[in-house]
Amino acid sequence: MADGERLIPPEFHTRLDRPVNRKLPELERNGRLKHVLFAEQLDRAFLDRLARTATRIRELSESKQPQLDLEELLRHKRAMLYFTQTSTRTFLSFVAACQLMGMAIAEIRDPSVSSEYKGESVMDSMRMFSSYFDVIIMRNVEPQLSEVCAYLMNDLDDFNQRSVPIVNGGSGADQHPTQAMLDIYTIQRTFEFEAPTDTPERNRFNDLRAKYPTLMRGLDQKSYAFVGDIGRGRTVRSLAVLLAHYSNVEMHFVAPPSPTLGLQPDLRLWLQSRGIQIYEHTNLASVIGDVDLIYMTRVQAEHNREGQPGPSAADLAACRLSPELVARMKDYAPILHPFPRNDEIPTTIDQDPRAMYFRQARNGIWVRAALLAHLFDVESQVETLHERWFRDRHDYNRAVL
Ligand code: NCD
Questions:
Q1: What is the per-residue pLDDT across 231-243, written as a single tens digit (0 to 9) for each?
Q2: For the whole model, what pTM was predicted?
């Protein structure tokens, strides 16, 4: 029996088979997210609000007493981290985010040490978790499992039984909405074009405009390049969906010439239906100097099928960064990567000010803490705390990544 068949009970198939926009109303409650499964649930206003809360949380966490006050906000909540697919950053930054907000956590990372080993279904396990915890954050190789768990929770709700939010921390090769949230936050902060040395007379943005006269602050009017395993990279899928909310955006997809690694027809159609200009390439050198951001990804070799020939060494090499290529990038264009990396970004590039991937990963803590604040409806309390501690600060929005 295939893994999916074992995990997904047949009674959920009709709900799973619907187009994503038909599913969205069931995933919210009173204008707030109830479950977090798809990037399609997140609009621009939500992303801006999330970023604001994330920055507040980051600033509060910088000193002891404000941090201790923050921990009081969700001290009474508990999170279950059910991560049965490998994870470092998503898992650990969720742990850190829960700790920041004062939440207790428990984890299962290996189903062989839970009752699933004795034949318990994932559905029964989930129902148990929902009776012990207040949110379930999960990652699984089966793309539809978190969605099914959300439906299970909704059904429990309908019968007035205890039900908790489900957060998708990575669903197979399909989606990774919380990674896309932190990617957007990182891009927002980067495209403020601020520098700690800015003064009213001289600032980084004006310096950049002298060389790039059409440059604008923010995510609109930008050209984004996604590089590597476009077809199987869930972070690319979710981020492309979010970037489609911004105006005059152009997307370049750079992948080895391969039906599995290249842009998949469903995402191409979805982006085209939203009027996004799409360009597909097989060589990073052909776009590197023209784009405003590079989003690198590794080749997801664990998804390779036996007997299927992979891309040639030369085709793979054409999708890697090198110091020579970085030298051709625009001065302000950041390099992002969800990590882990393999050999697509040599470590010699890490010291370049455009290498944003370590800051990007750190942003995951603030953004995930902000998401927990949203799910438990304490965003306004974060705001009040911030106001109380930093009332005298003039520029609340300003922050160094
Ligand atoms: C990615 C993931 O697991 O989707 N990493 C992450 O969550 N930060 C990327 C990957 O596995 O290549």
A1: 999 999 999 999 9
A2: 0.95
